[in-house]
Amino acid sequence: MKRINVTHDEIKLIGIKVRTSNKAEFNPSTAKIGATIERYFINQIAGKVADRKNPGTTICLYMEYESDMDGEYSYFIGEEVTSYDNLPEGLNTHTIPSQTYVKFTTQSGVMPNVVINAWQQIWQMSASDLGGIRSYRADFEIYDTRSKDPNNTIVDIYIGIKS
Fold first, then answer.
1. Which of 8, 14, 39, 121, by CA, is between 20 and 30 Å from 82?
2. CA–CA separation, 8 vs 98, rounded Å?
3. HSE-CB of 153 using CA atoms within 13 angstroms
4. So what's the pLDDT on residue 80?
5. What is the mean pLDDT of the chain?
6. Which of the four pLDDT bands, split at 50, 70 and 90, describes residue 163?
7. CA–CA distance from 57 to each of 69, 82, 128, 148, 160 (Å)?
8. Three-state DSSP class for 37?
9. Nearest CA to 74 among 130, 29, 15?
10. Whole-angstrom Cα distance, residue 34 to residue 44?
C-alpha cells in the first residue's frame, strides 16, 4: 500500500451509524457493518441529503472508540456536506476532526477483500511502521470514482495519529 502523512481539515458528514467492534464483525451472526452499508445503499440515503459536497463519494468513518482496535466503536457511512441544514429525519451528523492522518491507498482489488486486507496490514503495524501513534479519534475510508467497480477497487484509508 502507498502511504503518506497528511493534515486533513474537518469534514462534515450526514449518514447513518451503528455501534460495533472488530470482534463482532468477524462473526457473521453479530456483524453489523455489512447490513448498515446495505441499508444505506438500498434506501438511497445519499440521495436524501441536501448540500452534498462531492455527490457519489461515500465516506465510511470509524469513531467514538471505546479504547483501541479491540474495543467497541461507532461505524458511520455517509457523504460530505457543506452544511447540516435540512437534515433528513432519521439521519445522523458527525464532523471528522481536523488532525494528522496517515493516508493509505490500496492496490486495486476485489471488494470487500481489498479493504479487509488493508485493515489487517494496518492493525499489524507498530507506531514506527505506521508513522505515528494512533489517536483513535477518527479513521475513515473514502470511496470515490476509483471504487465504482467492485472487482477493481481502490480505496483511500485515513488513520488518525497523534501530533
1. 39
2. 5
3. 21
4. 98
5. 97
6. confident
7. 25, 14, 31, 10, 20
8. helix
9. 15
10. 15
Q: Is the pTM of this model over 0.85?
A: yes
Which stretches within the chain are classed as H helix?
Answer: 22-25, 33-42, 113-124, 127-130
Domain limits of the chain? Answer: 2-161
Q: Which CATH number fits domain 2-161: 3.90.550.10, 3.40.50.1820, 3.20.20.80, 3.20.80.10?
A: 3.20.80.10
Residue with cell 465516506: 59
Cα(87)–Cα(15) distance, rounded to whole angstroms?
10
C-alpha cell at 143: 470511496
